[in-house]
Amino acid sequence: MAETFTFKIEGAKAMDDVLDILGPKIARGLGQAATRAGAKVIVEEAKRIVPDPTGRLRDSIVIKAIPNKGREKNQVGVLIGFEKPESRYAGLVEFGTSHSAAHPFMRPAMDTKAAEALDAMGATLTKGIKREANKLAKGKK
After folding, report:
1. 109 CB contacts (<8 Å, ≥6 apart)?
2. Integer Cα distance of 93 and 36 in angstroms
């Protein structure tokens, strides 16, 4: 089952108002870019600490957009996962088995880089909003 994180961002209401002005298509694109930027921080750390002598498990860690099926139109998100065939092996490394000890790498990556991931998301949103606002301002002159 997927784990959900809830957090509070100062100034989120003002940012939401600006995204409303920019329109749903632009807001969705900016939101997707921001979630991808946050996920990238987690993935980089997971790749750095994964116990993987061959490099195949490390190379299989990927970020993918979550399909819109079953979600509201304006919701965005990404999934951090693994490419096949290493996807079958990743859980065994993270959680262990009756024959081998657990060697967590995903959870520690999330725990140690959560604040940095949120910072990356905020920076990406801020940069994108400024870019789009400038485009709108130039178009109105």
Report:
1. 42, 43, 45, 46, 48, 49
2. 25
Instruction: Tell whether the model's pLDDT for residue 47 goes beyond 80.
Output: yes
Residue 46, judged by CB atoms within 10 A of its CB (0-12, 13-18, 19+), counts as buried
Q: How many domains does the chain have?
A: 1
* Residue 126 in domain: yes
| Mean pLDDT calculated for residue range 109-135 | 90
Encoded tokens for 69: 């099926």
Identify the CA nearest to 31 among candidates 134, 139, 136, 132: 132
Average pLDDT over the chain reads 83
The residue type of 96 is G
Sole residue written with tokens 């694109």 = 29
In a domain, 2, yes or no: no
5 falls within a domain: no
Any domain includes 4: no
Instruction: Flag whether pLDDT at 86 surpasses 70.
Output: yes
Task: Identify the domain containing residue 98 by its residue range.
Answer: 12-105+113-135
